[in-house]
Amino acid sequence: MKPKVTKSKLNANKQTQSAKNSAHIENAGAVIETPVTDTLIKNYMPYAMSVIVSRALPEIDGFKPAHRKLLYTMYKMGLVNGGRTKSANIVGQTMRLNPHGDTAIYETMVRLSRGNESLLIPLVDSKGNFGKAYSRDMAYAASRYTEAKLESVCNEVFGDLDYDAADFVPNYDNTTTEPALLPVKFPTILANDNIGIAVSMASNICGFNLTELCDTTIALIRDNKAEIINTLPAPDFPGGGYLLYDENALKTIYETGRGSIRLRARYNYDKDANVIEITEIPPTASIESIMDKLAENLKLGKLKEISDARDETDLSGLKIAVDLKRGSDPDIVMAKLFRLTPLEDTFSCNFNLLIGGRPRVCGVREILLEWTEFRADCVKRKTTHKRKKAADKLHLLKGLAKILLDIDRAIKIIRETEEETEVTGNLMLGFGIDEIQAEYVAEIKLRHLNRGHILNRTEEISALEKEIAELQAILDDKKKIYNIIISELREISAKYAKPRKTLLLYNAATVDIPDLDETPDYPVWCTITDHGYFYKFKAENSEPRLKDDDTIVKSFECKNKTELLVFTDKCNVYKTACSEFSDKKAKDLGDYLGGSLGFASGETLISVIPTDDYTEILYIFFANGKCGKVPLNAYETKQNRKKLLNAVSELSPVVALIAVPQGTIPDLLLTSGTKKLIFSGALVNMKSTRDTQGVQVFNTPRGFAVESAVLFRAGMLTNADKFVSTKIPSGGFTDTGEQLRL
């Protein structure tokens, strides 16, 4: 009979076993504090490095790993000179090297294809719908519908791969190998656009015309200090258009690898139909983004010369038609379109690539010099491989030549040898040859053991010796390696040369166009409330609709385009304009400035200063009795910034801000407890910085602070003279309880 096991005993056994297991696990059950930096180094850094090195950035051969895996798979499938095959078949085969899924592989192939029109030198010969680079809505067909093969230019990419010109590495599951780099015969790294976003870094490489690129590379091989702008005038883009030529900007890009270039669309004007036809656009734009901006500006009334705009892109290519109203000047219309739409855009260059497994931002000169050394190494490896093959063949033929001395003896040795394994050794002893030569002789077919065949083979010895000497001379002289590279570049340039697609626009003529700001300007009456609400009325003295506990703190007349500086208690200034707010009617509630301008939590309004030209003088009054005097243009910025930080000093709370016209000397009235002070603004010296701490004006007793500051006008106080001080700082004058009339 089995002993009865109770539930409590089972739990006790489990706890005992758990304790035993825990004893063998280090720090089991303990909470260990780990610095976040250690966690990032251990967990995040490997991921970041994987993205940088194995995914996002191109290497010196011009390809990212995804490109290289796809192209190599197509090469192994025999698609360089063979017929096309279904794209789905290529995608499936590529997954042996690229484990990131069929969608990513197919998207890579689409971008490399001729049909997509995204590369100056397409690498995939496509058939079917592969979409268009200049349209986000013209999607490519599924891989089961399209076909592809490699372009003929890929012969220059893979031509040296069978000559041991590249290292091979295992694929992700160690079932096969793939090339670490492709032994390209021309600098593909600069022949095509290449964009990549890694972790904490990115790459944005533009392409160059192949002929100009080859000529520049040759010039740098001959003189690494050559002026490359003479042979490489500017980048080239597959979409064409115009490049606004700026030699200084281009030289910066060529030397540093960073900078930007301006690109402009190409168009024709049909005078009879009064239509502008846009046929080429910048690579950073798409048809849809241009049409969206056109529609937006037409709706805003900024393109009154245009009656209609439509997308007429079809199988023949890109076309955007813009119908003009009668009497409109097409040059002025295009100048407006260049300013308001992506028809003129900037391409930002960031030539960041992997060299020796490390990311590096290089200029064009440095990239071409690095590629030249990379290609020189490929040529050297190819030459070494050919020399070894020739030397091995020569070695065999020299052994065969010794057989020629007595063929009958060789046959007799083979015939009289009892064991097959002893044939090689007997031949070595009989003719004084080594094992490799003897094995070669033993494998010769009986029909080839005639004097004529052997003589024909041995006649190759002198040719092989000459070839080996020539190959060795190449290996011994780097100039000969460079000459081979130059010869290859010239051949490629002649074979695949194409005219520039992007034309250069020197000294682009500027067209005077009317002000694009279509904001109407008219007189308005503005009101600010204590709770921070803003009202804009077309009629003066309109009664705003206030909340029950709200009051008006400021009203002023200005224009609809007047800019507003909104000061807050967090020492910030928010810049806006009256035109940003809608006109109100008497029944409407005002706009809450905190919500409209994005105040931070707990941030409250102090004052609003209107200005048309920033020529006023601003007086800033602090609770500690100090006053700062700065020109209002200290808040004017060239950039259209909406928020200025540290706009006033934070050492003491701001009580009031008063702006007066330049050249005006105001009288200012301050109050603190039972005291008042009137003084001239001329007593305060001007400061240039907006966050000035100011100068002491009112010496407030301990426990008191300045409560208010206003612009003093006659009639505010009956006995105003007794509060006037001609010197600062001043302790003010006791108030007898007289009511201040504002």
Instruction: Work out the count of structural domains.
Output: 5
Radius of gyration, taken over Cα atoms and rounded to an integer in Å: 41 Å
> What is the count of β-strands?
33
- The CATH class of the largest domain: Mainly Alpha
Name the beta content range.
15-25%
Do you know the CATH architecture of the largest domain? Answer: Orthogonal Bundle
Shape: elongated
Mean pLDDT rating? 89
Cα(first) to Cα(last) distance is: 107 Å
| Sheet with the most strands: spatial strand order | 14-9-8-17
Question: How is the biggest beta sheet arranged?
Answer: 4 strands, mixed
Query: How many alpha or pi helices?
Result: 19
Low-confidence regions: none
CATH topology of the largest domain: Topoisomerase, domain 3
CATH-defined superfamily of the largest domain: Topoisomerase, domain 3
Structural class: alpha+beta
The amount of helix comes to 25-40%
In short:
With about 750 residues, the chain is of the alpha+beta class. About 35% of the residues lie in helices and about 20% in strands. A hairpin with a 4-residue loop joins strand 10 and strand 11.
Tags for this entry?
single chain; 742 residues; alpha+beta; Topoisomerase II, domain 5; Topoisomerase, domain 3; Gyrase A, domain 2; 5 domains; four-stranded mixed sheet; four-stranded antiparallel sheet; 19 helices; 33% helix; elongated
Detailed description of the structure:
- By secondary structure, the chain is of the alpha+beta class.
- The strands form ten sheets. A four-stranded mixed sheet has the order 14-9-8-17. Strands 10-11-13-12 form a four-stranded antiparallel sheet, with helices on one face.
- The chain starts with 6 loop residues before the first helix and ends in an 8-residue tail after the last strand.
- The chain folds into five domains: 50-184, Topoisomerase II, domain 5 (Alpha-Beta Complex), CATH 3.90.199; 190-249 and 371-514, Topoisomerase, domain 3 (Orthogonal Bundle), CATH 1.10.268; 266-342, 2-Layer Sandwich (Gyrase A, domain 2), CATH 3.30.1360.40; 519-612, no CATH class; 613-634 and 644-742, 6 Propeller (Neuraminidase).
